[in-house]
What does this fold into?
Amino acid sequence: MKAAPQAQLRLIDLQELDSTLDRLAHRRRTLPELAEVERLEARLTELRDAIVAAETEVGDLDREQRKAEQDVDQVRARADRDQKRLDSGQVTSAKDLSGLQAEIASLQRRQSDLEEVVLEIMERREEADGRVAALRAERAEAEAELGAVTQRRDGAQKKIDEEGGTTAAARTAVAKDVPDDLLALYEKLRGQFGGVGAAKLYRGACQGCHLALNTVDLNRIRSAAEDEVVRCEECRRILVRTPESGL
It folds into this structure.
């Protein structure tokens, strides 16, 4: 392949711009804020699920407490009725009196037991309320942190995109100075060799693979015409000759 020496030199400019674009793309993909946003979003999902579970527990305890309080009211009402019967003097039989007194005592014990149940449920409800409040506070803190991190991420991405836009415009201008066939070869090699399709020959070494060329290869390049497009025998990238090539 033939190309004017100046056109070949423009490949180095093009390669530098492409390398800059690659670095910008990599930086955009690996912004620390991206991982932080992902972590916070996952944590918020966990917190929302935990809040739903805690609120469900509170609701269950509400129903359980109401049922226990109803049981207490029923036992108390029954004990009150029995006590009124006892106090009214309507029951005169010793056997009936003894039975009524025993039932009242039993109901009082039952009421005491149920009231303990209510107190235990109330304690559990208080703990559940505390968990809901703590989870909601943590959620609010995580949401605020996510907002701040998202703002930093967007700012960093905007800055990278602006630099990328400027660099892409410069690349378009430089690419116009490279013949189509040479540009096509360069693009093909860039795809094959990690984004580097052309490199300088500097002091007898390829700056693409950083290996020194042997004497035979250097002599071959020395004898090549200036417009001949030469390749590195080691990495097969395009070698661009400059006054510092060591030829």
About this structure: The two ends are 21 Å apart (CA to CA).
